[in-house]
Each structure stands twice: as structure tokens, then as C-alpha cells.
Design goal:
The protein is mostly helical. It contains 11 helices and no strands.
């Protein structure tokens, strides 16, 4: 079998990072390299040609997930013609929805990766990227009247609890209560 072109190697790497980003949000960072490469449609042997270690991939996939979150948030702001309050309201409604609760793979990396990042050493790149991403998200959620960190904690906590109680009526009650709390007075 011949060597792949540089363009193909870059495409393969992009595919692995995107797949890892989704799988890590859905299943956690403990997903095996073999399962990850299989989900990417590539062989296990090609992994170490692309990445120095699984930890290096976790770093890159975490950065990719937060870049995706920022892109979606900014797209929402564009959709609402720069009206930040309307964009924030739409984001809160989407974030605290049954679809987001059920769509872990495409969901918020702050919620999905919180447990994994809590176990990462503080000097790891993934932990730094995660912390920066959470801070940026909280800053974006701030209003004149409400602290962004408090709003993010409400959203993230509600999403985690709704996922943990999925299948019970309590799950949707949690989402509804958090949404009402965050949008009261809008």
C-alpha cells in the first residue's frame, strides 16, 4: 500500500479530530484509540502517524469542540442581527432543550467533558482549553443584570441533571425550570 498524500493525511487528521470530539462528548475521553479509529473509518495503526499520544488527541479534540461551540454561538448572534439579548435567549432555549439533552455528541463540551476534565492534571493543554472555553462562554452569557458564570452554572447544571434523569418526568422539569429561571423578565 502506498503512502498517502499530504492533503489526504491532513484530511484523515481532521476526520479523527472531529470524530474524537463527537465521541468524547458522547462517551467520555476513555474511548479507546481502536474504537476511535474505527469510527473514523481508518486503521488503528495510522493513529500514531497523526498524533504523539491519545492525550494529544484529547487536547486537539477539546479545542475543536469549543471552537465549534463558539462558531454556533457567533452564528446565532449573526442570525439575530447583533441583538445579543435575543441571541442569548435563543441559545438558552436551545441549550435547555430535549434535543440538546439527547444530542450529546454534538452538544456543549463544557457539560459533556466536565467530569473528564476534573480528572485531568492542571497542566494539561485540554484542561487549559476547557477552562478558557468555559470562561469565554460565561462572559458571553453575562448581561447587565445577570452574572455570566451564574447563568452558565444554571444551564450546565440543569443539562447534566436532565441527562442523568433522562427517561423520567423530572428530566424535562429540570430543563423547563432552568429555562424559566434564566429568562424571567425577558
Amino acid at each position: 500500500m502506498g503512502r498517502v498524500s499530504q492533503a489526504q493525511a491532513e484530511e484523515n487528521r481532521r476526520r479523527v479530530v472531529e470524530t474524537a470530539s463527537r465521541l468524547f462528548r458522547e462517551q467520555g475521553t476513555h474511548v479507546s484509540v481502536a474504537d476511535l479509529m474505527k469510527a473514523s473509518g481508518l486503521t488503528h495503526g495510522g493513529f500514531y502517524k497523526q498524533f504523539a499520544s491519545k492525550e494529544a488527541l484529547v487536547d486537539e479534540a477539546t479545542a475543536h469542540a469549543f471552537a465549534e461551540l463558539t462558531r454556533r454561538r457567533d452564528d446565532g448572534l449573526e442570525r439575530y442581527a447583533g441583538q445579543r439579548d435575543a441571541a442569548q435567549r435563543a441559545l438558552i432555549d436551545t441549550y435547555l432543550s430535549v434535543e440538546h439533552r439527547d444530542g450529546r455528541a454534538d452538544g456543549c463540551p463544557a457539560a459533556a467533558l466536565a467530569g473528564d476534565m476534573a480528572r485531568e492534571p492542571g497542566d494539561r493543554e485540554a484542561r487549559r482549553v476547557y477552562t478558557e472555553g468555559v470562561g469565554d462562554f460565561a462572559e458571553w452569557l453575562a448581561t447587565e443584570d445577570q452574572d455570566g458564570i451564574a447563568r452558565l452554572c444554571t444551564m450546565l447544571g440543569a443539562l447534566v441533571l436532565a441527562r442523568a434523569t433522562e427517561g423520567s418526568p423530572l428530566s424535562e422539569e429540570i430543563l423547563t425550570a432552568a429555562r424559566a429561571s434564566l429568562t424571567a423578565g425577558d
